[in-house]
Specification:
The protein is α/β, with parallel strands linked by helices and 415 residues long. The protein folds into 3 domains: 18-64; 68-130; 148-268 and 299-366, Nucleotidyltransferase, domain 5. It has 19 helices and 9 strands. The protein has helices at 18-30, 35-46, 52-61, 73-86, 94-105, 111-122, 125-130, 163-166, 198-212, 228-237, 254-267, 271-276, 278-281, 287-311, 328-333, 349-356, 363-366, 372-384, 395-407; strands at residues 148-149, 152-158, 175-181, 186-192, 214-215, 218-221, 245-247, 341-342, 345-346. The strands form 3 sheets. It has a 5-stranded mixed sheet with strand order 4-3-2-6-7, sandwiched between helices.
Length: 415
């Protein structure tokens, strides 16, 4: 039977005025939406339920051109050339250019045409510049150079043994903070509760300055909120116009960044794996013992590394500008013998005391891993078991020997 009403038996919804519907359909084309998505948008956002045939009919009615019906060759070529010329780093591919042309210029251009045009404009560089990793490439390396010691000190925090690295629970982690002279000597490696705390790093910097009674011409770091006091103190202690602090990328802060790999070679790459054995030995009630024992073990290893590294002759390198074939300590102690100056800027104890007084957290609190009461009891137990050598391989054996003795004298909730 012939349907004389013209209705198809399906409720299509209420169509908006032609001008509004035309704008909706053109917007779909600008966004390069598939037919499936266009139908879904019409139904969910505009309450219009139609099929593919009806959609194509509406596109023909309002002259919504698709890339299949592309004819504007000259206009498109000019547009593509303009988009490519504005892409300074030449990282945009055909898909990106297609979307830009559609959204900004209201041009619907086939992807194949865009790619062919781009290739004609930039040649083989199109694929070379967009290949994975093309922006990285080998880092340009140059020989380190300096006028003398204390010209530049590099500082950085190391979190490979930190709480986030272990993921063994709150408080189970040991951060490290380091400072190294540009010429080579490691000035300080210290375990800390949190290498991202400005008060802690401020105290560490003043400790280093106190050890040498001097600061450097410049301190270089790779940024971070923990450097607030350090940067302020270094700026205060300096009196000339040379930049007292400089922030660089971590990949550029080579002297201190390379120190961590040297330390791993000395102390063993298995240190982290050994500490992670605590997943078996450690229970929540033993947190204080972990914080009393393992920072001491790690610090012992760091002290041994600093002593080793500072007194070990470096490999002789004929193309190296700074001294080679001699231990860092020797260069640091006698810079004049190696064509270097001592650029240390003297700092008085009075100045150090004044600056340390500005830090809200007292020094003893900044480096306090456990309460004084627990520290006293734990030390007595450690002596009772014979004060075994603090080293990573025997760390958990010492831990397990101390646990039952501590539980006999300390409230379990304070272990």
């Amino acid at each position: 039977m012939v349907n004389t009403t013209g209705a198809n038996g399906t409720e299509n919804g209420v169509f908006p005025p032609d001008e509004e519907l035309r704008e909706i359909l053109f917007d779909f084309e600008r966004k390069s939406l598939s037919h499936e998505l266009r139908l879904r948008y019409l139904q969910e956002k505009h309450h219009i339920k139609i099929g593919l045939t009806k959609l194509k009919a509406l596109n023909r009615k309002f002259n919504v051109l698709s890339s299949r019906k592309f004819h504007a060759v000259e206009e498109a070529t000019e547009a593509i050339a303009d988009i490519v010329s504005r892409d300074v780093y030449q990282g945009q591919g055909p898909d990106t250019v297609k979307i830009i042309a559609s959204l900004r210029l209201n041009l619907t251009i086939p992807r194949d045409f865009i790619r062919a045009t781009m290739k004609g404009l930039v040649g083989q560089r199109l694929s070379d510049m967009r290949r994975p990793g093309r922006g990285k490439g080998p880092k340009m390396r140059t020989a380190l150079n300096a006028i003398g010691i204390f010209q530049e000190i590099h500082v950085d925090g190391h979190e490979k043994l930190g709480e986030k690295a272990f993921r063994m629970g709150p408080g189970i982690g040991i951060d490290v903070y380091g400072m190294r002279d540009h010429v080579g000597k490691v000035l300080l490696l210290k375990v800390v509760l949190n290498s991202r705390l400005s008060d802690t790093v401020g105290h560490l910097f003043l400790d280093m300055v106190s050890d040498f009674r001097a600061t450097s011409v410049q301190v270089t770091f790779d940024g971070g909120s923990e450097l607030g006091w350090l940067a302020a103190f270094q700026t205060t202690l300096r009196s000339d116009e040379w930049r007292p602090v400089v922030a660089v990328k971590s990949t550029t802060n080579i002297p201190i960044e390379s120190t961590w790999s040297y330390d791993r070679q000395f102390n063993g790459r298995s240190l982290r794996a050994i500490i992670e054995e605590g997943r078996i030995h450690l229970i929540p009630g033993d947190l204080s013992l972990f914080r009393w024992l393992w920072p001491k073990i790690v610090q012992t290893g760091l002290d041994g590394f600093v002593d080793y590294f500072s007194n070990k002759k470096t490999r002789k390198q004929h193309n190296r500008i700074l001294p080679s074939g001699v231990a860092p300590n020797v260069v640091f102690d006698m810079p004049g013998n190696y064509g270097l100056e001592n650029l240390a800027i003297p700092v008085t104890q009075a100045a150090l005391d004044e600056l340390r007084g500005l830090i809200d957290t007292p020094r003893e609190d900044a480096f306090c891993w456990v309460s004084d009461g627990f520290d006293e009891v734990a030390m007595a137990v450690y002596i009772e078991i014979g004060s075994p050598k603090l080293e990573a391989l025997s760390g958990w054996a010492i831990f397990n020997s101390m646990v039952p003795l501590l539980r006999g004298v300390v409230d379990p909730t304070h272990l």
